[in-house]
């Protein structure tokens, strides 16, 4: 298997950075009732959820996620299960963690986490959604559609683009995911899965440039 590159090509940098900046909601962190770590291939989500818990931003964490084709090899027991194990290794007490192991998309992440919390009798007026950086906007729009009465803050590990690519180990994968999430902002709103979000012209142009450059593996 050829070695995957972690270097962002100069001719793609401006467009990739535009999408990266668009998906960051730039929310100011503040305490919430619960932190919800959205399952994915990125174990950094669990790392950052643990850090935020240790800093006192929320008293409990829900890790949510089953598997997707992109995660089953890395997390064979399920995303949420592996996230929990990682958080325990980082010193998070077991009784501060809830696991929702069935979600297979972002809508499931929100709906099933909400149901789990309600079943435990935990009142929730505010949540912090911890996700991959480029999932923030879609997670926010999905939560506002499916759980409209809760206050939502989005958070991701505060890594610049290049360092994030290195942490994932595959620049093409990151670009494809960015492109796919950008497409989903419009499509999911039309399908009723999320609230509508403005997509500025500069974002649409960068998206089109990257699709034309061949980054289409995550398109619907």
UniProtKB/TrEMBL annotation:
Pfam families: DUF218. It comes from Amycolatopsis ultiminotia. InterPro entries: Cell_Envelope_Assoc (IPR051599), DUF218 (IPR003848), Rossmann-like_a/b/a_fold (IPR014729). Residues 45-152 form the DUF218 domain. This is YdcF family protein.
